[in-house]
Amino acid sequence: MSTEIRHLRAGVVGTGFIGAVHVEALRRLGVEVVGVVGSSPERAEAKALAPVLSSYEALLSDERVDVVHLTTPNHLHYPQVKQALEAGKHIVCEKPLAMTSAESAELVELAQRSGLVHCTNFNIRFYPQVQQARALVANGAVGTVWNVHGGYLQDWLLLPTDWNWRLEPEKGGTLRAVADIGSHWLDLVQFVVGMRVESLLADLATAIPVRQRPAREIETFAAADDVEREDAPMSTEDLAHILLRFEDGSRGSLVVSQVSAGRKNSLRFEVDGAEGAVAWDSERHEELWLGHRGRPNELLLRDPALFAPEARSRTGLPGGHAEGFAETFKELYRAVYTAVAAGKPPAQPDYPTFWDGHWENVLGDAVALSDRERRWVEVTT
Ligand SMILES: NC(=O)c1ccc[n+]([C@@H]2O[C@H](COP(=O)([O-])OP(=O)(O)OC[C@H]3O[C@@H](n4cnc5c(N)ncnc54)[C@H](O)[C@@H]3O)[C@@H](O)[C@H]2O)c1
């Protein structure tokens, strides 16, 4: 562990599902979490994650805090990032970086001007098998890539009674499933194949047009039985089918759904090339499938001894000793805090930056336009 990283300190904003994951990952790196801020001090206190600070302003004016982690609902990211940059703090912001690409473009501009370290929390890149897949593709193991396909499926919004702030466009955004989980898939496959999406064709659908909203607020993935409810018409998509063209002409496709029974958190991708294929599934993330034509297929279990150096450096335990979701945050923050310890972003960041967050907003714009006008759309910043 780097001594410098251990001397850095963080403040975490938002104490819900993912705020708790940030706090735990930071502690495992030896980073002190100076304090957390919730929607109210009482609610944050109830979570017992770390000392509770009285307000976001108090966190920003606390000189002990080097890095601010934003894990609040989507609509708060843009104003909170701006405030953090003004206060001179390095920032890790959850996805989506902002509600619109105009906002995310402004944040990229401000962050670059500040000289501070900025990260959009696309943690899935840091599964060791994802790093291995990227290394294999880069080293030519599958030959020329011509096809990338898969999807991101969940079932936690399957029932009309399932509710979360993500269903409210003013808090979650005007795109929902695509911005919430499709953005992870798109970021990931572009990372794995090392190419950007150049154009796309999207078809969005709202499977449940009216939901029953609970009268009081509930947290992500929490059950809400026996509460008073009211009808809430839905304007955002439960599912999406998207065709892709990458900048080198290779093709792709994905299905995004938050209403697929039995799929808890299933992100899958498969890369087909002229000499082989590679596939990964987040629900079986210790495995990497290697597809061959002229010999039996292979299943590579996570094992540092069998990995490319890039992947080996992102895994801590020996093979057969399971790692998981929480470790992806730890490894992402190891990369980010190494940059913070150096005092500025590296020339070639090895973690996703605000630029990557902005790019996902730009792709989201293209998805919305394509669906609205029922046509292919070029992706342009
Ligand atoms: N990278 C990932 O894998 C991942 C996973 C889940 C969520 N997320 C992202 O993290 C963010 C939070 O999602 P979640 O699922 O944890 O939601 P959540 O509802 O569980 O938690 C949000 C928290 O923010 C708090 N909050 C609301 N307003 C606040 C304010 N003004 N100041 C401080 N805190 C406030 C709420 O009280 C709650 O504790 C979203 O942007 C989401 O897209 C990312």
Describe the protein's topology.
Layout: H1 3-6, E1 9-13, H2 17-28, E2 32-37, H3 41-47, H4 56-60, E3 67-70, H5 77-86, E4 90-93, H6 101-114, E5 118-120, H7 128-138, E6 145-153, H8 169-172, H9 177-193, E7 197-205, E8 210-214, E9 229-233, E10 239-246, E11 251-257, E12 266-273, E13 277-281, E14 287-291, E15 298-301, H10 309-312, H11 325-342, H12 354-373, E16 377-378
Helix pairs in contact: 2-11, 5-6, 6-12, 7-9, 9-12
Please provide a written account of the structure:
The protein has a 9-stranded mixed β-sheet with strand order 15-14-13-12-6-11-10-7-16. It is globular, with a radius of gyration of 20 Å. The protein contains 12 helices and 16 strands. 46% of the residues are buried. The chain has helices at 3-6, 17-28, 41-47, 56-60, 77-86, 101-114, 128-138, 169-172, 177-193, 309-312, 325-342, 354-373; strands spanning 9-13, 32-37, 67-70, 90-93, 118-120, 145-153, 197-205, 210-214, 229-233, 239-246, 251-257, 266-273, 277-281, 287-291, 298-301, 377-378. Bound molecules: nicotinamide-adenine-dinucleotide.
